[in-house]
Structure formats: structure tokens, C-alpha cells
């Protein structure tokens, strides 16, 4: 049975599928001793695959939920030598893991970390509407009109309008109610989406925390802490990801 090279690499925990495609295109991958740069190349279990001259070996998939602190980079490495999410897993996890999607440097909260490239691909693909819930501290108190605009979609720039969101006022804050906590669930994965949406309705974000991703909730995880997912949670993630993929086909 043959499979696409980038899919095999992702399953082996080398990198996400998109990152594996980049490795192929830039000449880092050899199949049976020959450099392969063509995406979609098919390989079988009998083929020898090397990345930077190191043969790949399939790792058992692992899945973790991490509460990302403020001021931590959502990346495997950082050229500026800032702290990354993987620093919290050093000497405790031997698999080649990486974060699923991204959170801004100053955004905290729920982040999935895994070595399962196929699941990473399904959960982060722009066409897959995976739910993400955020709690935002904003300037001012949004009113009913603001919430209606967020629920129906707001224009963010000349080429992009946000998709409908689920939103509610969680709490009024301050002696004169000068701030509010707003809970917002979106199904898109664009950069700075929540911040842009709330800015568009006149309530800039002061602090932002993702409280849930793809049905996984932080619960009692403190910033910087992580836990392994149980079998049911992993199964639910796959069902959600595959369900969204099937909806896309329909």
C-alpha cells in the first residue's frame, strides 16, 4: 500500500503535514537515496525515507493539552531565543512533538501539542471549522448591537469578513464598569481573529485567553502546566476532525 510522502512523514512525527511539504520542496528529504522535491510522491513501507540524512521511524502518537502562559512562543524553536511551548516538555517527553496551530505571544490558554501530523493537518486546515473559545478582557461594555454584529459577522478589512460567532457578556469589571469579560467562540483560525473582531465593534482587547480548543477545556490546568489526553478525548478529536472533513466534501 502506497501513501503520499508528506503524510508518511507527518505520521512519523517529523513535522506537521504542511511543514513536511516544505522540507520536501526544499530538498531535505531522500527516498531510497535520492532527493525528492515533488509533492504527492508515493512511498511504501519498503522505501527508505531520510530527512537530513537521518532515517525516519514511526513514533507512537502522543497528545497533550497545554496551558500556554503569556510571553511564550507557539513554536518548536525561536531564532530570538525566546521561551517556546516545547521548553515546558523538555526531558519529560521523548517524542518529536509540536504545537497544533498558534496563539499570540501575549495570548494565554489552551493549546494542543502532539506528534500526530495528520490530526494537526485536519484541526488547523482553514476549511475545517474547529471551535475555539476565548475569554477576552475588553475596554468598555459591549451592548446588544455590538453582540449582534459579532454574531452575524463583522467586516475586518477590505477583503475579509468574520464568520458568525457565539458571544456572551461574562462579567462587567471595574468600579465604573469600564471593562468587561466577553466569551467568544469562533470556528476560524485566522491570525489575530478575536482581537480584530472586538476592535471592529469598538472594544479593544486588553487580555486574551483561550479557554477551550476543539472541545478540550483547560479546567484546573495552571499556566505552564500540561496533561496527556485520555483515549476518549483523542477519539473525540478524531471524530470532530473527520466530521468537519466530511462536511467539507458535502
What does this structure look like?
The structure is a single chain. By secondary structure, the protein is of the alpha+beta class. It has 3 domains: 53 residues, RNA-binding S4 domain (Structural Genomics Hypothetical 15.5 Kd Protein In mrcA-pckA Intergenic Region, Chain A), CATH 3.10.290.10; 100 residues, Alpha-Beta Plaits, CATH 3.30.70.580; 82 residues, 2-Layer Sandwich (Alpha-Beta Plaits), CATH 3.30.70. Helices cover 24% and strands 29% of the residues. It contains 6 helices and 17 strands. The strands form 4 sheets. Strands 7, 8, 9, 10, 13, 14, 15, 16 and 17 form a 9-stranded mixed β-sheet that branches. The chain has a 4-stranded antiparallel β-sheet with strand order 3-2-5-6. Strands 1-4 form a two-stranded antiparallel ribbon. A hairpin with a 2-residue loop joins strand 15 and strand 16.
Q: Let me know the average pLDDT.
A: 89
Overall form: elongated
Secondary structure: number of strands: 17
CATH homology superfamily name of the largest domain: Pseudouridine synthase I, catalytic domain, N-terminal subdomain
CATH topology descriptor of the largest domain: Alpha-Beta Plaits
Number of helices: 6
Radius of gyration: 20 Å
Order of helices and strands: EHHEEEEEEEEHEHEEEEHEEEH
Which bin fits the share of residues in helices?
10-25%
Strand content: 25-35%
Amino acid at each position: 500500500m502506497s501513501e503520499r510522502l508528506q503524510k508518511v512523514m507527518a505520521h512519523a512525527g517529523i513535522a506537521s503535514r504542511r511543514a513536511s511539504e516544505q522540507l520536501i520542496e526544499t530538498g531535505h528529504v531522500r527516498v531510497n537515496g535520492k532527493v525528492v522535491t515533488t509533492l504527492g510522491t508515493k512511498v511504501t513501507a519498503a522505501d527508505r525515507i531520510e530527512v537530513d540524512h537521518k532515517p525516519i521511524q514511526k513514533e507512537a502518537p502522543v497528545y497533550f493539552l497545554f496551558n500556554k502562559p503569556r510571553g511564550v512562543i507557539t513554536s518548536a524553536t525561536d531564532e530570538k531565543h525566546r521561551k517556546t511551548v516545547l521548553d515546558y516538555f523538555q526531558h519529560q517527553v521523548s517524542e518529536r512533538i509540536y504545537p497544533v496551530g498558534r496563539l499570540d505571544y501575549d495570548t494565554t490558554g489552551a493549546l494542543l501539542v502532539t506528534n500526530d501530523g495528520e490530526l494537526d493537518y485536519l484541526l488547523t486546515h482553514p476549511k475545517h471549522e474547529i471551535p475555539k473559545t476565548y475569554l477576552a478582557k475588553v475596554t468598555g461594555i459591549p451592548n446588544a448591537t455590538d453582540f449582534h454584529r459579532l454574531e452575524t459577522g463583522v467586516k475586518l478589512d477590505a477583503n475579509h469578513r468574520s464568520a458568525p460567532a457565539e458571544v456572551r457578556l461574562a462579567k462587567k469589571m471595574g468600579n465604573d464598569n469600564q471593562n468587561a469579560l466577553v466569551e467568544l467562540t469562533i470556528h476560524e483560525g485566522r491570525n489575530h481573529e478575536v482581537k480584530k473582531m472586538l476592535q471592529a465593534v469598538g472594544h479593544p482587547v486588553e487580555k486574551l485567553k483561550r479557554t477551550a480548543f476543539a472541545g478540550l477545556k483547560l479546567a484546573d490546568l495552571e499556566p505552564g502546566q500540561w496533561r496527556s489526553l485520555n483515549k476518549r478525548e483523542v477519539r473525540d478529536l478524531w471524530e470532530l476532525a473527520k466530521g468537519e472533513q466530511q462536511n467539507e466534501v458535502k
